[in-house]
Design goal:
5-stranded parallel beta sheet, alpha/beta, single chain, two-stranded antiparallel sheet, Helicase, Ruva Protein, domain 3, about 325 residues
């Protein structure tokens, strides 16, 4: 086995174990978050308040030895509140750049859909090019810059739908649900005993397993995971089928094909394998495609969900052996 790949598998396993010291349950969510980070992409976190979305991102930043910033999106948030601006100094008689929270490694964009499109678009250049332009001057961000944007799936009053161009920048849409009964009972007992997840994070019980400089080497190791030609064709066919399916008005872009193959490759490494299987592709199809497709109005009226539409697409595509 290639040394880079072996190191990547080791770090992925260690990171998952460290995050698990703080986050109770949510195993699939942790996997998806790690996949997003170690492939250099961004994630859209969707879940009701109080299920540890912010805590998850803070923990990931601690485990991976990276900086963390948070922006609370509101209707009056301005683009300069994200990117920063040049401020005139009377003392120096000159302008100085006051950097915004986007100058970090892990950025939590909390309730991103509560800000208007103009403010949301301030993140587009940063997400795609990892740089921002302030007063016609371009500033380079960290090569590991990662955005975790959160949305509340049930409260839409006073929100602005994300533009399709911005949703396409997110590799995965990670659905965070409530813990099961055993996990919620464990959480309740931890709070009563004073051993809350927040305390464990702040007390130093969670240690960094990799430095920011090593993330590039980990990503290089993922390139050693084998993807057979027929699996590449399988992913391409799935994405192209979304553009012609009866229930889908707008299908996924070619960027979705890249995201599906990249996520499948990282999932294989996370599972300790050096090869991708059809199940890897099917498992991450919903997370990759769900926020990229638009259902036809008549199917939405009939109660068809995005998950059901993706399932129908998968049923229509022949699985390679």
């Amino acid at each position: 086995m290639n040394g880079d790949l072996a190191r990547s598998k080791e770090i992925l396993a260690q990171a998952k174990a460290e995050v698990g010291k703080v986050i109770v349950g949510q195993h699939d969510v942790i996997d998806q978050a790690l996949i997003v980070i170690f492939t250099g992409h961004h994630a859209l976190l969707e879940g009701v308040p109080g299920i540890a979305k912010t805590l998850l991102v803070r923990t990931l930043a601690r485990v991976l030895g990276c900086e963390f910033s948070r922006i609370q999106f509101t209707p009056d948030l301005m683009p300069t509140d994200i990117t920063g601006t040049n401020v005139f100094s009377l003392k120096d008689n000159d302008f100085h750049l006051v950097k915004g929270p986007v100058f970090t490694t892990f950025l939590l964009a909390d309730e991103i859909n509560r800000a208007p499109a103009k403010t949301q678009s301030a993140l587009l250049q940063a997400m795609q090019e990892r740089q921002v332009t302030i007063d016609r001057e371009t500033h380079v961000l960290s090569p590991d810059f990662t955005v975790f944007a959160t949305q509340n799936p049930i409260e839409y009053e006073g929100t602005y739908p994300l533009p399709e161009a911005q949703k396409d920048r997110f590799m995965l849409k990670v659905a965070m649900g409530c813990p099961n009964e055993d996990e919620e009972s464990a959480l309740a007992r931890q709070f009563l005993s004073g051993d809350s997840p927040e305390r464990r994070l702040e007390s130093g019980e969670v240690s960094a397993v990799v430095s920011g400089a090593e993330l590039a080497a980990v990503r290089a190791g993922l390139q050693e995971v084998t993807v057979r030609e027929e699996l590449i064709d399988y992913a391409v066919t799935i994405v192209r089928t979304t553009r012609a399916h009866d229930s889908i008005l707008v299908g996924a872009s070619p960027r979705a094909t890249e995201a599906l193959l990249t996520a499948s490759r990282a999932a294989a490494a996370l599972d300790g394998r050096d090869f991708v299987t059809p199940d890897d592709v099917k498992t991450y199809a919903l997370a990759v495609l769900g926020h990229r497709i638009v259902l036809r109005p008549e199917y939405e009226i009939e109660g068809v969900t995005v998950q059901e539409a993706v399932d129908r697409v998968l049923q229509d595509v022949t699985v390679p052996r």
